[in-house]
Amino acid sequence: MSRTHRIFVPADSAALALGADAVAVAIADEAARRQLSVQIVRTGSRGMHWLEPLVEVETASGRIGYGPVGLADVVSLFEAGWLEGAAHALCIGAPEAHPFMARQTRWTFERCGVVDPLSWEDFVAHGGGQGLAQARALGAEATLAALIESGLRGRGGAGFPAGIKWRTVRETQANIRYVVCNADEGDSGTFADRMLMEGDPLALIEGMAICGFVVGARKGFIYIRSEYPRAIRVLEQALELARTRGLLADCDIELRIGAGSYVCGEETALLESLEGKRGQVRAKPPLPAHAGLFGKPTVVNNVLTLATVPSILVRGAAGYAALGHGRSRGTMPIQLAGNIRHGGLFEAPFGISLAELVDEIGGGTASGRPVRAVQVGGPLGAYFPRALFDTPLDYEAFAARDGLVGHGGIVVFDDTVDMVRQARFAMEFCATESCGKCTPCRVGSVRGMEVVDKIIAGRDVASNLALLEDLCHTLRLGSLCALGGFVPFPVLSAVRHFPQDFQRP
């Protein structure tokens, strides 16, 4: 009897958008025509998006990757003998040995693209469940101490120490506590949360279970954006699997779907939405750690923060803390997007420079033109010119240069970009997405669009630039949340680093 060949085809949204489902069907059909026994395993993505669909075959010497595989390539792959790892124009060798992968330090994404996200056997075989077992063996206090020792900070953008937040919730007197995962990933150029939820959802669920155990929460919620239908389906199945396998014995978790509001990525607006109210920002204090969901102490962390916790407990807090730069410890899943040759997910310790990320790892622009600017931290992040590419990826280093690390998204622009129009887009984005609760954000963003329009038209440019800076000052100091408060980052960075674009003829 001939052996069954295992073939791994990603079911990540990026791969699906590039035809992965059709490729999987074509592979199965061609194998049947050749009377070959194959098992097609649907995985997440390795994160090398320019190679998607990246199909892997299991051979005697390990998994061998081929990509990007199109429908027209399937027959030639079989003819070349790819099921034995044979050479082919699309062969990249062992995926983990590819230069893009070999330079990474994967703690959060170590299983993503490797396992079937809905296989409990794969999960356990690759270390799943060990983090929760370790937490239970250590006890809540020792687990909390390990998290603090690791230096893990919130990966959602604020960078607040996760252990300190957990300790605050644990020590706040209450009869009920909650764990909430902010999966409302809405920043431009970011996709790490989606990738992890589609490729290794049980890592997130295990992290939430550990959090519930540590802080004494019996209930958790994952708040996910409605624009992620694939991630929603995978999470629903993963939660049921986790429930039947006892992963949620101490803290049950529900999935809640948002309604498309960017501002609900802000933790208090998210909590309002979870309570069934309009998604508007709350005034602080009180902080959610003291009075969050339904007025009870609540941990609100994003996907990457929670999903990293199991690895820290299994591989060691000291090992995680040894990575990084300055006060930014551990690794950051960096998302390379925009006009870039090698876009994708690159997890590395803090401290790597923008130049290394964009020029070496990303390979420069996809257009082949010079890189003019990058925006780090989503639509509210600053635009950095080439002169600032020596900046290390580090919360404090970016803040010192009026920038944001945010969720780790890097969007690249070549020399054709018009920075005055990028500044206008920031104001337009704020006006569109504002919850309307505070005047600086609601009104100031609209006035900002009008002022930039006057600059574009060449009307009283000097006085309107002064007015724009004054308006940004008001937005930064007067807005209730980061939506209005951070709009000055892209606007003023565009003005200061690219002044020639604002001098209209």
Key attributes of the depicted protein:
five-stranded mixed β-sheet; 21 helices; 4 domains; 16 strands; alpha/beta; about 500 residues; Ubiquitin-like (UB roll)
3D architecture notes:
- The protein has helices spanning 13-17, 20-33, 74-80, 99-102, 120-125, 130-138, 140-150, 162-171, 192-199, 201-215, 229-244, 267-274, 303-315, 317-321, 354-361, 395-400, 419-433, 439-456, 461-478, 482-486, 488-497, and strands at 5-10, 38-43, 55-59, 62-66, 91-93, 178-183, 219-224, 252-257, 298-302, 324-325, 328-329, 331-338, 344-349, 371-376, 383-385, 409-414.
- By secondary structure, it is of the alpha/beta class.
- The protein folds into four domains: 5-102, Glutaredoxin; 120-321, Rossmann fold; 324-414, Roll (Ubiquitin-like (UB roll)); 419-502, de novo design (two linked rop proteins) (Up-down Bundle).
- The strands form four sheets. It has a five-stranded mixed β-sheet, covered by helices on one side. A five-stranded mixed β-sheet has the order 13-12-16-14-15. A four-stranded parallel β-sheet has the order 8-7-6-9, with helices on both faces.
- α6 (130-138) runs parallel beside α10, α6 packs across α13 and α7 packs antiparallel against α8.
- The longest helix is centred in the last third of the chain and has 18 residues, at 439-456.
- It is globular, with a radius of gyration of 24 Å.
- The model has no long low-confidence stretch (mean pLDDT 95).
